[in-house]
Amino acid sequence: MLSQLPLLPVLLPLLGAPACALLRRPLAAWVFSCAVSVLALAAAIALLAATWQQGVLSYALGGWAAPWGIEYRIDLLNALVLLLVSAMGAAVLLGARASVWREIPEHKRTLFFVAYLLCLAGLLGIAATGDAFNLFVFLEISSLATYALVATGRDRRALVAAYNYLVMGTIGATFILIGIGFVYMLTGTLNMADLAQRLPAVGQSRTAFAAYAFIVVGVCLKLALFPLHLWLPGAYTRAPSIVTVFLAATATKVALYVLIRFSFTVFQVEYSILALPLETVFVVLGVVAVFAGSLVAVFEPDLKRGLAYSSVAQVGYMVIGVGLGTVAGLQASLIHLFNHAIMKGTLFMALAAVVLRLGGSTYAQMQGVGRSMPITTACLLLGGLSLIGVPGTAGFISKWYLVTAAADREQWLLVLLILAGSLLTAVYIWRLVETAYLAPRQSPASIAPRALEAPAGLLAVLVVLALANIYFGLDTRLPVQTAGGAANGLLAAVLP
Amino acid sequence: MLCLLVATAIALIAVRGLLASIMLTSVYGLLSASFFVTMDAVDVAFTEAAVGAGVSPLLLLLTVAIVGRREAASNARRLVVPLLLVTVTGALLIIGTLDMPSFGSPDAPAQTHVAPRYLQQSGDEIGIPNVVTSVLASYRAYDTLGEVLVIFTAGVAVLLALAPAGQGGSARAEPPAPEHLAPHTILQVVSKLLIPFMLLFAFYVQFHGEYGPGGGFQAGVIFASGIILYGLLYGLPTVCRVIPPPVVEVLAAVGALIYGLTGVLSLLAGKNFLDYSALAADPVTGQHIGIIAIELGVGIAVAAVIITIYYAFAGRLHTRED
């Protein structure tokens, strides 16, 4: 079975989804989905270990060698993203029961878990494949499932949010498909490794330029890079709490992976005339995203929506790392990819608990929540500190590597801007502290009577996620070394 | 043909009534299908004719029947930025095609790198005459599995969005209501003659996919079109008695699972996922068995999902009329 390892993390949820649809009882569907996602996580862990030991693993689907057949090609980068997505997928699902039972009507619950597994399978498939068209197919699976999940949100505005996301996402996917079509026209192959070999010969052509432009714009729509982020706040705010946790922790991360994979492995932009302007574009858009996202988050009356804007800002940090175009920059970007999933996982999971008990997540509703839900609020705060980048948390490691990478390139202005961005984060996290702990309790009628902690299942997952923020702030080996290895691998082909 | 396509597209944008634009969408679908035929892509043409010209305009019509046929007036000033974006995209597309090898050129990279092996070896390696089927069902079978799951996801998404409450997760139609529309006698008689042939043709396309154009996708949409036509003329309750919605929903999952489990069988036989040569002693026979099995899965899944989507839309309209 070891030789099948690269396939397993994707195959389990992919076939688990239709099997789950055959289960009529929602509880059975939930238990089944949990089992599938935990098994997928176990496979992803084994896969990362195998990649460390044996280097790049290749798996020929259908037994046909690439480029004739489809290849799964797992290097450290793939393995890291697979681990992250499957871990968050399993964790969120394990804690999901109470929240799903509260927010999703009974007749939709089974299908909800089917869609969740499909979304998970799609994201994992994108992260595992070594074939450009196969990537698009799995992108479609994950996107369609995501639109459906967002649309199950409680009020009807979820439908509008899902529709906006659908329109933007479909444009993005179409752009990616056009780009892939162009590179196929140029090279006659769809395999990424094969593309990487054959593209430099035609890399100066206008078609290659157009192909890369289409792919970058398409992926950035999915990534919600400023100014293509307009779908994100609505989708994150209106989606069911559990869906928001899952999307915030995985979807944009996978999009960033795709951006990195196409830029550095397939197109090797360092070689082409694109290198300089593109780096500038990424750094500038990243910085603008950090400030625009954070500023909106500061003034947003609803914490869930505020954190959604904060995600726009955090994507900015990751893209700055990509734009630096160095090994250190890429490493910082990947570390932040990993850590941000944990931070936002914690924060949105805590909000899922808050919404479950208080019915909403506006600052007004959360007055004094620190007293009625002490554990949840502590986790929320821990996630917030990590988001700011306080030493001892995972967020600090992210910021540290990003600042160091920028300093290496002697971009002092950029260093300053990154630090200023953190200050803005501190502003809206402070607002949370004020609301949760310092604000006087409102008149008893306006707050939910005796709001208690969330059920044990949700709370346990939340505490584990919150502690992960501290763990990865102290023991940084997993993200830092894997990201370092992955970044070296990405740039080994292009750097002397 | 291309001029007609462009003309239809422009008319589609210019026309204001939703009903007219749906009809034009259907015309566009039919034109695209004919265009695909002239490009020798008959497999794609089949699907486009059934889905692009038939099923999707029908779903749009059902939607319009629910939401009304007038478009809200849009503000012309706000169109400047979108226009600019569209222009840039169009320009980029044209730039992209400037260095394109001329159509059908034998020296084009698409013809010289991967394709020759498909053309020259697939006869020996897979042993069926239709190379398109060889590529879709074996060389790139995993993509096709992905596509089936995309279609399955679409079905799940529609059910999640449209499932009425309190009916056990399915868009089940109400018990047969008295028909308040005059029966379309002529259409019913004609369709009674037509539908058996449509269904028969679907089976022909399904099982002939190895030798001629066709396969599970095409067969699935043709079969579903036949059922939908029946539903349109005899009413939703009647067709729901022929094929109950819960059965269709289960079939959608079963179709996807048949495909997936064929792959798992080769895993269990010690080969890679979807390596059909593990399914029989002789690799070429194994390929045959595998392709027939997965095409069956594709056909079932596609037909079931399209019928499910139709039920969900028509069910909405039906509850509204009552």
UniProtKB/TrEMBL annotation, chain A:
<feature type="transmembrane region" description="Helical">
    <location>
        <begin position="207"/>
        <end position="232"/>
    </location>
</feature>
<feature type="transmembrane region" description="Helical">
    <location>
        <begin position="372"/>
        <end position="392"/>
    </location>
</feature>
<feature type="transmembrane region" description="Helical">
    <location>
        <begin position="454"/>
        <end position="474"/>
    </location>
</feature>
<feature type="transmembrane region" description="Helical">
    <location>
        <begin position="29"/>
        <end position="49"/>
    </location>
</feature>
<keyword id="KW-1003">Cell membrane</keyword>
<feature type="transmembrane region" description="Helical">
    <location>
        <begin position="311"/>
        <end position="335"/>
    </location>
</feature>
<dbReference type="Pfam" id="PF00361">
    <property type="entry name" value="Proton_antipo_M"/>
</dbReference>
<comment type="similarity">
    <text>Belongs to the CPA3 antiporters (TC 2.A.63) subunit D family.</text>
</comment>
<keyword id="KW-0472">Membrane</keyword>
<protein>
    <submittedName>
        <fullName>Monovalent cation/H+ antiporter subunit D family protein</fullName>
    </submittedName>
</protein>
<dbReference type="GO" id="GO:0005886">
    <property type="term" value="C:plasma membrane"/>
</dbReference>
<feature type="domain" description="NADH:quinone oxidoreductase/Mrp antiporter transmembrane">
    <location>
        <begin position="131"/>
        <end position="425"/>
    </location>
</feature>
<dbReference type="InterPro" id="IPR050586">
    <property type="entry name" value="CPA3_Na-H_Antiporter_D"/>
</dbReference>
<feature type="transmembrane region" description="Helical">
    <location>
        <begin position="412"/>
        <end position="433"/>
    </location>
</feature>
<keyword id="KW-1133">Transmembrane helix</keyword>
<feature type="transmembrane region" description="Helical">
    <location>
        <begin position="80"/>
        <end position="98"/>
    </location>
</feature>
<keyword id="KW-0812">Transmembrane</keyword>
<feature type="transmembrane region" description="Helical">
    <location>
        <begin position="239"/>
        <end position="260"/>
    </location>
</feature>
<feature type="transmembrane region" description="Helical">
    <location>
        <begin position="135"/>
        <end position="153"/>
    </location>
</feature>
<feature type="transmembrane region" description="Helical">
    <location>
        <begin position="341"/>
        <end position="360"/>
    </location>
</feature>
<feature type="transmembrane region" description="Helical">
    <location>
        <begin position="165"/>
        <end position="187"/>
    </location>
</feature>
<feature type="transmembrane region" description="Helical">
    <location>
        <begin position="110"/>
        <end position="129"/>
    </location>
</feature>
<dbReference type="InterPro" id="IPR001750">
    <property type="entry name" value="ND/Mrp_TM"/>
</dbReference>
<feature type="transmembrane region" description="Helical">
    <location>
        <begin position="280"/>
        <end position="299"/>
    </location>
</feature>
